[in-house]
Amino acid sequence: EAKANGIDPYEIVVANDAIAVIVNPNNPVDKLTMEQVSQIYQGIITNWKEVGGEDRPIVCLSRETNSGTHIYFLETVVRMGDSNSDALFSEETLLLPSSEGIIAEVRDNVNAIGYDGLGYITNEVKVVALNNGAGYIVPSAETVNNKSYPIARQLYMYTNGEPKGAIKNYIDWIRSSEAQQYVLALGFIPYHQGE
C-alpha cells in the first residue's frame, strides 16, 4: 500500500524486546509451557488448577487489537507461530488500552494473567518462566540475545527509502552505543550490530 502511494518503506532494527507473561505475585504458578499459555488465551484452559495453581478462574488480559504487541502475541503465542492457524483470543479476554493498565490489573487481581513488553514490567507483578523446549526461561537481555527466551522480537524504525542526510545521522545515532544506553534505561534490550 505504501509503495502504491510512492513510499518505499525501509526497515531498520533499533532495539530488541521480550514479551513477558505476568501473573499476580500471590499466584503460586511461576512457570508455563507455550502451549499452556496459548490454551489459556484461547479459553481452553480456564482454571489455574489446570496448570498447577489454585482452584480459581483465570482472567486473561490483553492489549487492544490495534496494538502491535497484541498482534505479535496472537501470532507468536496464541497461534504458536503457525501461519495457517485461525486460533483467536477467547471472547472472555479483557482488552486494555495500555501496558500500564495491564500491570495495574495483574497487580490487583490474583486471578489475572497478562503480557507486556519487558520495559514495562515492575516488581508489582511476577514474571512467569516459559518453556523453550529445553527448559524454563525468564526474559532478560541475556536470554533475548542468546535467543533462548521464546517470545522476543526486534523493534524497528522505518524511513522512506534508505536514510540519507540528517535522517541517516539520526538513525546512526539511535544505533550508536551512546543512544543504546537510553534503550537499556527504558527497559528494552540494546540492538547489536549484525542484526
Keywords:
single chain; 10 strands; seven-stranded mixed sheet; 195 residues
Describe the secondary-structure layout.
Elements: E1 9-23, E2 31-33, H1 34-42, E3 59-63, H2 68-78, E4 94-96, H3 99-108, E5 112-117, E6 126-127, E7 129-131, E8 136-137, H4 141-145, E9 152-160, H5 165-174, H6 177-185, E10 189-190
Parallel strand pairs: 2-7, 3-4, 3-5
Antiparallel strand pairs: 1-5, 1-6, 1-9, 1-10, 7-8
Describe the 3D structure.
By secondary structure, this protein is of the alpha/beta class. Helix content is 28%, strand content 26%. It contains six helices and ten strands, in the order ββαβαβαββββαβααβ. The chain has helices at residues 34-42, 68-78, 99-108, 141-145, 165-174, 177-185, and strands at residues 9-23, 31-33, 59-63, 94-96, 112-117, 126-127, 129-131, 136-137, 152-160, 189-190. It starts with 8 loop residues before the first strand and ends in a 5-residue tail after the last strand. The mean pLDDT is 94.
Quick take:
The protein has 195 residues and is an alpha/beta fold. Helices cover 28% and strands 26% of the residues.
Task: Bin the strand percentage.
Answer: 25-35%
Rg, alpha carbons: 18 Å
* Quaternary status: single chain
Order of H and E elements: EEHEHEHEEEEHEHHE
Secondary-structure-derived class:
alpha/beta
* Spans where pLDDT lies below 50 across 5 or more residues: none
Major sheet description: 7 strands, mixed
Overall strand count? 10
